[in-house]
Amino acid sequence: MLRIESQQVDTIVKRLQEQGYCVIAPTVRNGAIIYDEIQSASELPVGWTELQSAASYKLERRRDQAMFGFAVGPQSWKKFLLPPLQKILTAHRENGSFVVEDETQKTDDPSERRKLAFLGVRSCELHAITIQDKVFLSQSYEDPHYKKIRENIFIVAVHCGKAAPTCFCSSVNTGPRAESGFDLALTEVLDGQEHYFTVEVGSNPGLEILNTLPQRTANEKEEEQAKQVVEATRRSINKRLDTDGLKEFLYQNTKHPQWDNVAQRCLTCANCTMVCPTCFCTTVEDTTDLTGGTAERWRKWDSCFSVDFSYVHGGSVRATPKSRYRQWLTHKLASWVDQFGTIGCVGCGRCITWCPVGIDLTEEVRAMRDVRVPSRES
Q1: What is the C-alpha separation between 86 and 136, in angstroms, rounded?
Q2: Is the link from the previous residue into 176 a cis peptide, with omega within 30 of 0?
Q3: d(Cα 241, Cα 14) in Å, to the nearest integer?
Q4: Beta bridge partner(s), residue 185
Q5: Closest C-alpha to 273, from 241, 243, 302, 300
Q6: What's the CA angle centered on 245, arms 242 and 246, to 5 degrees?
Q7: How far is the C-alpha of 322 from the C-alpha of 263, rounded, in Å?
Q8: d(CA 55, CA 62)
Q9: How far apart are the C-alpha atoms of 372 and 166, rounded to whole Å?
């Protein structure tokens, strides 16, 4: 484990930029901490933290100058790996027929050509990226658009020094400490007048960046302080999702009365799926220009909470809020396991914070477990 001073975070940004990376990091915009391109470490949320609870989010000043003294905001890195709006193909008339151009073969799309460096990725978010890799880079189907972006990513993780009351990563084994999937991993330590980071290397590209920085080996006290930062965060996490036998339990309780209870509160607004770092539902739209000479196909984010998402000839398969919430939760925590070998939840708590009526999936599961009504629905 190595030690660098806090000002060296800016040097990391500069070194990545010198290697052609566009650096994406947390920054304050419009009353929230979001992910966006930065030019220097001064644009990080220095001295800011978040106050989060069910259906509530606001920023608050810290008493120190921590760069990463917050949990997670409304956005995830999915925004860059699976863009909300993405052109798939273009077709235009030529000599009496249509010529189709596959957008993945083009090199003039800045969003897919540039190399991206993610700075400040939390452990839960690393697990979310791994889950999406399983979805889009599996042997049975490989998404060329996702692959084109994913293979040019450099990741600087940050072990969590703060958890929000909505976090429950420890109960689903996704945090607060990042174990893999990064090029570099930082732990921020504030000790009196000292402000430094310990650094772990996860790849050769990460080592190359680190070797350009002033550094030294962390001593025993500094290693222990870094360890205690993460352990204190772990101890502060009180929310929990009981995953023991959860897949079978949900399959057996498709008619549980709790589904009716949550349906009375759910607005089917899709906020939970939009902020979720693993949800991947999309739709495809075709457009033509006024002359009829050019057509485009676009992929855009969609949600299983949309009434039209399950529309087939004759109507929607899931026409009620109850059926749509049940589909989302059961897929996320049960059938996702059958598809991808893991649940689709990483415990980041965003769906709880950004649900306008404060629906908490951990509480919904607990309520169903408290009143068991075994049943199967064909």
Answers
A1: 15
A2: yes
A3: 40
A4: 157, 200
A5: 302
A6: 60
A7: 5
A8: 22
A9: 25
Q: Whole-prediction pTM value? A: 0.94
Dig out the tokens for 75 from the structure.
């956005």
Tokens of 377: 């629905």
Each residue's pLDDT tens digit, 26-67: 999 999 999 999 999 999 999 999 999 999 999 999 999 999
C-alpha distances out from residue 15 to 9, 40, 91, 365, Å: 10, 11, 40, 46
Q: Which tokens belong to 360? A: 């908490």
CA angle at residue 77 from 137 to 309, to 5 degrees?
Answer: 70
Alpha carbon distance 285, 331 (integer Å): 25
CA distances to 147, 175, 182, 200 from 178, rounded to whole Å, are: 23, 6, 8, 10
| Tokens read off for 196 | 């430094």
Q: For residue 155, give the nearest of 90, 109, 192, 201 by alpha carbon.
A: 201
Return the structure tokens found at 263.
């349906």
* Segment 177-216, tens digit of pLDDT: 999 999 999 999 999 999 999 999 999 999 999 999 999 9
SS (H, E, C) the chain: CEEEECCHHHHHHHHHHHCCEEEEEEEEECCEEEEEECCCHHHCCCCEEEEEECCEEEEEECCCCCCCCCCCCCCCCHHHHCCCEEEEEEEEEECCEEEEEEHHHCCCCHHHHCEEEEEEECHHHHHHHHHHHHHHECCCCECHHHHHHHCCEEEEEECCCCCCCCCCHHHHCCCCCCCCCCCEEEEEEEECCEEEEEEEECCHHHHHHHCCCCCEECCHHHHHHHHHHHHHHHHHCCCCCCCCCHHHHHHHECCCCHHHHHHCCCCCCCHHHHHCCCCCCEEEEEEECCCCCEEEEEEEECCCCCCCCCEECCEECCCCHHHHHHHHHHHHHHHHHHHHCCCCCCCCCHHHHCCCCCCCHHHHHHHHHHCCCCECCC
Length of the chain measured in residues? 378
Query: b/e map of 118-138 (b: 16 or more CB within 10 Å)?
Result: bbbbbbbbbbbbebbbebbee
Question: Which tokens belong to 41?
Answer: 């470490």
